[in-house]
Amino acid sequence: MTLHGPSLAADGRLAHVRHVGARRDLVVGEQTLTEGEDVFGFAPRWVGPDELLYTADGSVGRRELSGTRRDVPFTATVPVVAHRDYRQRRPGARGPEVTGIASPVCSRDGSHVAFRALNALWVMPIGEPPRKVVAEGYFASDPDFSPDGRHLIYSSDRAGTADLWSLELATGAQRRITDVRGAAITPRFSRDGKQVAYQDQDGATWVAALAGGPPRQVTPPMFQPGRPDWSPDGRTLVLAAVKPRATRFREVTSQVLRVDVETGALHYAEALPLRSLATRGDDGPVRSPDGGHLAFVVESTAWIVPVDAAGAFTDAPRQVTTELTDSLSWRDAEHLLFLNGGELRSVHIGTGEVTPIPLELRWSPARTSQNQVVRAGALWDGTSRELRRDVDIVLAGERIAAVLPAQDERAQLDARELTAMPGLIDAHVHWHLRGRQWGDRQGRAWLAYGVTTTRSPGDPAYQMQETREALSSEDPASARGTSPPARPSTATASTTTSCAARSASSSCGWRCSGRPHWTTTWPRPTCAFPCGCSRPPSPRRTRRAGR
To answer: Known SUPFAM superfamilies for this protein (predicted)?
Structure first.
């Protein structure tokens, strides 16, 4: 038996929803008021000394303690827009400015910012260019400064699974902090620098002593909680967490959760009445340096609230930004760092004055202009019922220019024991909400199953933008989840020719500049490559690689 939604009457009587097996009933004291109704897990509301408001069977009802029920009429109109004009081709990950700035955090003295971008960790003295400090091709994330600013703690899967590592900024020396079964992510230093709080792959929060010893679990597993932060005395953690109303439903709010580190006691508080925290990731709550305030994001703006030593609210929250706000971090007791439109900013919590923080970081998408022919034992084009056997797949730069019957001495890459097919698309994934603990293995697992394109309908925006830019970057170390491709060597004279030389023996009859390039025989005259011919390839015979 499980009880949900407790609600006290003015005289102290307790109403709740009782869950036994597949049955849910509205109960007051020991009296069961419903029979055969599918009662929703929300708390009932007392609307009189002997009457309750509740929901069941998809409708709202009023139930007297005598047993009489009356439905509350409710209708709503949902407008449907038949057509909307909007820009459908979005800029996406194209550069040159980096906008995927993930998990920015300030040093305790407010002079430096650490963040993840292009699959690397960076440290930037404010007012100076950023410096890349961790860039090994693995998934490194969630940096945090030690209180003295000399070390950076972060999560990395360089050893196979996500564990915590410490980087000495002056020397570059690295030390592994955890070696746990599963994952260790989202670390945060305690104020004295002796402990670190982190979360595992199931959403449980742990505390590890940097001096050594086994980590200690301080919360049960939770549904995708936010990154924890410490009170100045080290006795309390705060984080964003879903407050469950019932095990059956996901209709809940993200609230501020206080955790007693010693006892594990949990205390939830709504950030604002009937409103939810933003993404449970980098949007708070975060504790101010003096411990006197919590900051968090609600509906894309920053709010602060005064708190006591245990983190309990002592007054009403107050809004401090009016523009889109993400990824909060305290610079000092009066300033918050945040992201807006891919740029770092600082806001004074008293005056609301916003100051830009320059961050110059550029990148270039990967491009290739080389041509290659792949010999495949079989090909499935995604629509045919039969495989095509023994084919040459002609790659012209970033496109598939042709698929031809196999011909001797034409292929550069021998895949005759394999079957080629279009890349699959996974249309519903969560790289960072559900898959962060997999790190670099996540992309490799998709590729192993033939998935070359993913769509994330719900992830923290900056985390996902960083992933898009990293995967698209021309820097092989940034291409997380893929093996850096071996670039083919320049083709030799024996395997290249020109349109002019081949015009008598092939179907390529278009005028050409004569530069060496791959030539092919088409069912009708055309030139397959962007080699300078007076006529470009037919778009009907050109497919984007991997699509």
So the answer is: Composite domain of metallo-dependent hydrolases (SSF51338), Tricorn protease N-terminal domain (SSF69304)
**CA-to-CA separations, 111 to 114, 331, 487, in angstroms, rounded:** 10, 8, 42
CB-CB contact of 196 with 164 (8 Å) = yes
State which H helix or E strand residue 116 sits in.
strand 112-117
Closest by CA to 242, choosing from 253, 226, 231, 227, is: 253
Render pLDDT for 441-463 as a digit per residue (tens, 0 to 9). Answer: 888 888 888 898 888 888 888 99
Length of the chain: 547
Output the furthest CA–CA distance in the chain (Å, rounded).
100
Question: Looking at this protein, which amino acid is placed at residue 119?
Answer: N
* Alpha helices, H only, 58-121: none
Half-sphere exposure of 384 (CA within 13 A, CB side): 10
Beta bridge partner(s), residue 323:
none
**pLDDT tens, position by position, 237-275:** 999 998 866 555 666 789 999 999 999 999 999 999 888
At 162 the pLDDT is: 92
Could you report the per-residue pLDDT of 11-54, keeping only the tens digit for each? 999 999 888 877 888 999 889 999 888 888 888 999 999 999 99
Which two tokens mark 68?
A: 């009489």
3-state secondary structure of 438: helix
Residue pair 488/370 in contact by the 8 Å Cβ criterion = yes
Sort 165 into a burial class: Cβ within 10 Å, 0-12 / 13-18 / 19+. buried
Structure tokens given for 91: 């800029």
